[in-house]
Structure formats: C-alpha cells, structure tokens
Amino acid sequence: xxxxxxxxxxxxxxxxxxxxxxxxxxxxxxxxxxxxxxxxxxxxxxxxxxxxxxxxxxxxxxxxxxxxxxxxxxxxxxxxxxxxxxxxxxxxxxxxxxxxxxxxxxxxxxxxxxxxxxxxxxxxxxxxxxxxxxxxxxxxxxxxxxxxxxxxxxxxxxxxxxxxxxxxxxxxxxxxxxxxxxxxxxxxxxxxxxxxxxxxxxxxxxxxxxxxxxxxxxxxxxxxxxxxxxxxxxxxxxxxxxxxxxxxxxxxxxxxxxxxxxxxxxxxxxxxxxxxxxxxxxxxxxxxxxxxxxxxxxxxxxxxxxxxxxxxxxxxxxxxxxxxxxxxxxxxxxxxxxxxxxxxxxxxxxxxxxxxxxxxxxxxxxxxxxxxxxxxxxxxxxxxxxxxxxxxxxxxxxxxxxxxxxxxxxxxxxxxxxxxxxxxxxxxxxxxxxxxxxxxxxxxxxxxxxxxxxxxxxxxxxxxxxxxxxxxxxxxxxxxxxxxxxxxxxxxxxxxxxxxxxxxxxxxxxxxxxxxxxxxxxxxxxxxxxxxxxxxxxxxxxxxxxxxxxxxxxxxxxxxxxxxxxxxxxxxxxxxxxxxxxxxxxxxxxxxxxxxxxxxxxxxxxxxxxxxxxxxxxxxxxxxxxxxxxxxxxxxxxxxx
Length: 641
Prior knowledge:
Helix content: under 10%
Radius of gyration: 27 Å
Largest sheet: 6 strands, mixed
C-alpha cells in the first residue's frame, strides 16, 4: 500500500466539473466508522454532527483505483446515524479507503496493514469519535461498534488528535488519554492532498518521539494546512490512528475536540495548544452536541411532572463535560410513585455501592430509599430488596424525612441527609441518619441519627422555603485520602490524625448546604455524638449532591440548574486545604432542570476508557411535555476513567 499509487486525475476532474456546487453542510462531521476487507468489503459511515448530511454523489477510492461512485443504504445520514455500502472494488489485506464529496473534497480516509481489517477495523471508544482499532472481534455494520471492540483499548489507540490550526504555523496537537506513555517516533501524518506522501512526526518541528500518559505533544505540519483540509495520523505499521476534517475557516484559530480528548471537533474561540481544550467556541469545525436516547411512554395516573425552578447562570471558567456526549434516559416513565409521593417526583441523591458497583442507591425526598439494579439498560428497583422501595423514618420510627442526599459509609451502611420532617415542613431538621441496608421489613429506622439543626439558625424562619435549603447532599470521604494528601485538621491546625477521634469510624462525612453552597465536615461517632470540623467553600451558590470519587481522587460538589448544571471537583492543595480544582457542566443534550443527584461508577467498571455517570431529576420534567424525557427521573452517560 502506497500513497503515491493513488490516481488523482479523476478527483481533479470532479473538482473542476463541480466547482460551482458547494460541499454539503456538515460534510466534515461524516466519519468512516468501520471497514472490512473480508468478502463483501463493507464500509460504514457515521454522522457525528447534530444535523443530517446528504451524501448523494459521493465517491470512494482505495490505493489502486480512481474515485468511483458507490451505492449507500441511504443517500442521507441522519445526526448520530449510520450508512453502509459495499465497495465497488475489492479491498485488500493491506489497503486504503478514501471518501470524497461529489466535488472531490476529501471527507475521511483510513488505512490498514496486513489483515488489519479482518474481520473489521473500527473506531472504538465512541462511534465516529473513537480511535481506530484493527482486527476487531466482530463486525457491527449499521450499529454501534461497542460490541465488536476489545474490552481494553490498545495503548496506541488512546492517542487522539486533539486540536489543529490552519492559521500560521499549522500546528497539530496530540493527546494521550491512556495510563502509559506511547512511542510515536515512527508515526506519520498526511493532509487531504492525495498526492502527498506521509511525513514523520519525529522529523517535524518540534521533534517528538513519545507522548506521556495524560500528556500532550504538538508539532508544526510541514505540508501546510489550509481551508477544507484534513490531517490523518498513522502508526509505524501504516494503520490509521485518528483523523480530523474541517470546512472553510473551521481551524482558525483552531479546531478542537470537545470534550478534551473524547468528543468531536468544533471551532475554538482561543487556541489552547499543549493544554486542555477550552471548548468555548462552536460552528465551523463540527460542534457535535450528542444525542438524548431512549425515554418515552405515557404518564401514569397521578404522575405530574414539575417544571424546574431557580435557574441561574453557569460559573465562569466552567469546562465542557469530559465524557461522552450521548446520554440515555435510564428509567421507566413515572417509575418512583409511592404512597407519600404519588406524583412520581422527588428522586434526589444517588450513590454507587463501592462494594457492588452494579447497585445504585437512590433517595426520594418524600422519605423513601431505593436499591436499583440494571435491567435491559435501565435502572430499576431490585426485586429481592424491594420492588417499590423502602420507607425511612427518623429515630424512634417517627416522621417523614425529607431525604435529599445519601452516601455509602466505610461500613457498607447507607447514610441519608434530611433537611426537614415533611409532616411539619416549615421547621428545619438537618440530620444525617445511618441505615443498615440488610435490615428486613418495608420500613427502615436509623441505627444512629445525628442532628445538626442548631448550627443553621438562618433556616429556622417559619418558612417552608427556608427550611428546604438545608442538607441537600452528603459524601463519605475515607481517612486514607485525607491523610495521604496532607489535609490540615481545622481543629488542631496540624495534619489530620484520625486516631485523635477514636469513635468516628474510618472516614468523615461532607454535607452540602443548599443555602449557600458550603460543605460541612463531620465525624459521626458511634455513641451518637458528632465532631464538627468546619466549613469548606465550593465556589458555588448551592450544593445539591456530594460524592467522593476514588477514580479522580476528588470530592465532587454538584449543583443543578441553580448553578448551570455543574460539578466542581475539589482537591487538597499544597497548604492542606480542600479547594475547587475544576468545574464541568453536564452534557449539552440534557435538560436544564432540578437535576439534584449525581454519581460516577467506580473505575472497576471501566470499558473502553469510560465508566457510567448517572443523574436524577427531582421534578421529572425533562425537556417538557411531549419530549422523550418527560416523566423520567434518571439519565445515564459516561465519564473518563
């Protein structure tokens, strides 16, 4: 297989004949997604964009024949959709495939070494946006590649083309999303001029031979990058690793992948070569927004979605969601109706069980706890625990806790926050309750209950609205993380020493206050007393959920539409203080609602570099009446490992 072997006269003729006809809008968002050189030599195209693209009159070539028309399964590719066709000429063991618009503009190109496309070569880690993997386990034409991809993506395929500019130096940025360094000394790149031969990255300026885990490499193209151009990245065996195509002015100042390292490309406002992409632009580069999948169904009797309240602005400096852009509605319509909440609303706090990540715990405001498991892609109540959830009470079996947040402690028990008793909802009752999930019966009473109400006199005004602004979320944070990262104990002014607090267990609890967005740190003693370690500012107006993520080694403070649907990751800085590190917004396809619950699955569940993230909607309003999300509470997406 050679680049120089491609006959280009047919391309030039097509460009001349069709010079007056513009390329179809969004053509640069169409990617070759899968190809096989076995038997029928099938090719699959995928549309990463948010609008349909016409492929009428498009052509293809390999490394030995001039561009020829093909017969696709459809002349239009819908947003997020697939089109397949059989190559009009045979594809060989070591070959190249190029796709052109009817004008002769190169759309995408993929190359493979001997037997690399048997049974298939496919993009893994996301259709259209993933890097190429050779000799996949199975073909998946017309559907997502996930089932045919390996469970662990090869290290080389973790390297992504992350940003490119056709403005001045014509710089290309690569990003390594893997956990080990990758040698790129023999890798090559080429633009969309089919008469050009590939150029070695190591011979470009600056010279690069390796890219570290989580790191970046930049180099200036010696081929020159212009409008309506592409860059194709190849490994030392001649297999395509990644590619990007942009339309006129799409790479000025740059075309950047959003989210950084994972999503599709959009035109940036400011180039960020050598660092994480800002994702603050839009337009010419593609601007994929993802898809909201699933949902639907008719509302059941008494199930009344509640429109969101309290929408505020997104904080400055917030970054785009770093995971996949597609989101799936992950529950049945009106799934959480109870005797105290027949309207089907009020699913709030979420937490994966660290000992069994196939279990998701959920709290419903009107005093119910759910143990959820996956069934046919949806989170549903575990029939063996309770098909309808279990009602929770305050100590002594009284009242109806306004359950907002929950977390799993080091002892495997479920800790739930309540901000008031719904039987007297004008009076605050900011408590943390400990429940044993192994307890039998349909009603649960706490083993221990800690009442912090007196610490928040500003909530006790006789107003149910003020009483509803207390503990909204809680996260268990292990002592091991606090000590390993040098947290300074506010009570002693020295490094935190868990031995100073012999009754508190193996970690502390961080409760989020909706009133002002602060975190309140407590040691919950086994004798029913508690230790107050002070307050931590999150930089947010409110906090709706709190979780500790062992994968990122961060405490996450989440806020709903009040703060622009954002998640602030908190770290321990060099001075031993817990401070905001980075803030992400939700995937753009999600509704701007009272999304009060948020949880990320443990890294043990990672597949193809991603793990599940789940959100809960307090009002099940979705995108409004008539939308697929109307009447649903749970949304499932992905987060990087």
